[in-house]
């Protein structure tokens, strides 16, 4: 668990904002074309769904976020296309409050599907784009998926906006779609407790996130926990993280789940017990069917590679000639060695941090096997040694 900025981030999952009726986009309600086709997935980051779309005829990158109710345009994109926006208020997201605006006359096209012109919400995506390392021009939320359904085929790296059918899947999980809140939820048993409702949140790169109340109900069987920094629409936030030996989704047993405990934020405020994110969903090819209210899962993908766990305990941002530590995980070798938030690393085991280091073979040094010795040279001139270990 080390790399560019934050390893786990939440986009706008579960966030809702009071929006005047005139500002509610009708884009997702009426589909102008009944055509259905596969749309290629772009760069895959923790299972996050990025696709190419057009907005007012202009090519754009979209993130499919079932944890967000509406369709929302990046403020940067709106400004670049001279789409004026007016403020409509703020709402709580992960990391703090997020300001929202609205712009008029936005038309969206996804593959062969064209959606009607209408108003659309606008927000600043800067912190999320930084964490993702990828530009996002528009977020497509649950209101659109509710009108079409969605099939996600990670193996062939493609998505289709249509409702799945059960014949292609090995597990069917009962799902509820709340049209008032515009959200998809399920329930799962964990350590003898039923965790419900759980938001299906493809806009989160985490596996499984629960509230403090839900964590207290299952924590009697949790051996070790630490903490990580995540980034949401409102900025960074520190959350507890632990490992579940397995999680049952329908008839599927999923081993080794990294789970997070949210501070009293949007999950609790929206009467949710937790969420399942893209990292967990990407273990399967899956589909969301709003008609029969089911989440369909394939067998666990043979090509799936789980996210590596940290064995060092450092989170940081890569700069051209250094790594700036943003968070030291509690109970980690890095904490025991005396490293602190804000320390700057100039080399590791004699390998200098240079431009492009984040894409080099050294990028995963913090998630390698336990028992490895590291000599970390800080830019201040101090050298600190530590040995990697499994600490959660």
CATH class of the largest domain: Mainly Beta
Q: Distance between the terminal alpha carbons, to the nearest Å? A: 12 Å
Low-confidence stretches: 1-35
Mean pLDDT: 85
- Characterize the overall form: globular
Question: Percent range for helical residues?
Answer: 10-25%
Structural class: mainly beta
Characterize the biggest β-sheet.
9 strands, mixed
Q: What's the CATH topology name of the largest domain?
A: Cathepsin D, subunit A, domain 1
Task: Provide an overview of this structure.
This protein is mostly beta strands. Helix content is 10%, strand content 42%. It has three domains: 10-160, Acid Proteases (Cathepsin D, subunit A, domain 1, Beta Barrel); 166-297, Cathepsin D, subunit A, domain 1, CATH 2.40.70; 314-387, Roll (Pdz3 Domain), CATH 2.30.42. A nine-stranded mixed sheet has the order 1-17-18-19-16-20-15-14-13. The model is unreliable at 1-35 (pLDDT under 50).
Give structural attributes.
392 residues; six-stranded antiparallel β-sheet; single chain; Cathepsin D, subunit A, domain 1; 7 helices; Pdz3 Domain; mainly beta
Brief rundown of the structure:
The chain is mainly β.
Record the SSE blueprint.
Layout: E1 8-9, E2 38-40, E3 50-55, E4 58-64, E5 72-74, H1 75-80, E6 86-93, E7 96-110, E8 113-123, H2 126-132, E9 138-140, H3 142-148, E10 150-153, E11 158-160, E12 171-174, E13 176-178, E14 183-190, E15 193-201, E16 208-210, H4 212-218, E17 225-232, E18 235-249, E19 252-261, H5 266-269, E20 274-277, H6 278-281, E21 286-289, E22 294-297, E23 314-318, E24 323-328, H7 333-337, E25 344-348, E26 351-352, E27 373-378, E28 383-387
Parallel strand pairs: 1-17, 4-9, 5-8, 15-20, 16-19
Antiparallel strand pairs: 2-11, 3-4, 3-7, 5-9, 6-7, 7-8, 10-11, 10-21, 12-22, 13-14, 14-15, 16-20, 17-18, 18-19, 21-22, 23-24, 24-25, 25-26, 25-27, 27-28
């Amino acid at each position: 668990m080390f790399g560019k900025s934050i390893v786990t981030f939440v986009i706008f999952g579960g966030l809702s904002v009071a929006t005047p009726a005139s500002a509610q986009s009708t884009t997702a309600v009426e589909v102008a074309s009944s055509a259905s086709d596969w749309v290629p997935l772009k760069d895959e980051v923790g299972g996050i769904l990025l696709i190419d779309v057009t907005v007012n005829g202009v090519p754009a990158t979209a993130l499919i976020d079932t944890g967000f109710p509406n369709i929302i345009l990046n403020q940067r994109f709106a400004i670049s296309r001279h789409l004026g926006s007016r403020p409509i208020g703020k709402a709580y997201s992960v990391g703090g409050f997020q300001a929202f605006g609205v712009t008029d006359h936005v038309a969206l096209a996804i593959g062969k599907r064209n959606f009607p012109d209408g108003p659309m919400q606008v927000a600043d995506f800067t912190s999320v784009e930084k964490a993702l390392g990828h530009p996002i021009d528009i977020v497509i939320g649950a209101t659109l998926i509710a009108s079409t359904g969605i099939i996600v085929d990670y193996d062939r790296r493609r998505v289709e906006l249509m409702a799945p059918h059960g014949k292609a899947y090995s597990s069917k999980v009962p799902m509820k779609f709340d049209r008032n809140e515009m959200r998809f939820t399920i329930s799962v048993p964990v350590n003898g407790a039923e965790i419900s409702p759980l938001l299906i949140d493809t806009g989160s790169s985490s596996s499984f996130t629960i509230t403090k109340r839900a964590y207290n109900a299952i924590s009697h069987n949790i051996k070790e926990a630490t903490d990580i920094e995540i980034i949401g629409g409102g900025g960074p936030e520190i959350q507890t993280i632990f490992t579940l030996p397995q999680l049952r989704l329908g008839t599927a047993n999923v081993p080794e789940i990294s789970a997070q405990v949210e501070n009293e934020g949007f999950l609790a405020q929206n009467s949710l017990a937790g969420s399942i994110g893209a990292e967990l969903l990407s273990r399967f090819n899956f589909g969301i069917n709003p008609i029969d209210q089911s989440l369909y899962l394939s067998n666990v993908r043979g090509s799936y590679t789980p996210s590596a766990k940290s064995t060092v305990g450092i989170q940081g941002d890569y700069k051209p000639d250094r790594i700036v530590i943003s968070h030291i995980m509690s109970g980690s070798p890095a904490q025991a060695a005396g490293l602190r938030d804000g320390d700057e690393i100039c080399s590791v085991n004699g390998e200098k941090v240079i431009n492009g280091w984040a894409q080099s073979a050294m990028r995963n040094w913090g998630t390698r096997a336990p028992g490895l010795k590291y000599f970390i040279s800080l830019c201040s001139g101090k050298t600190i040694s530590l040995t990697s270990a499994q600490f959660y």
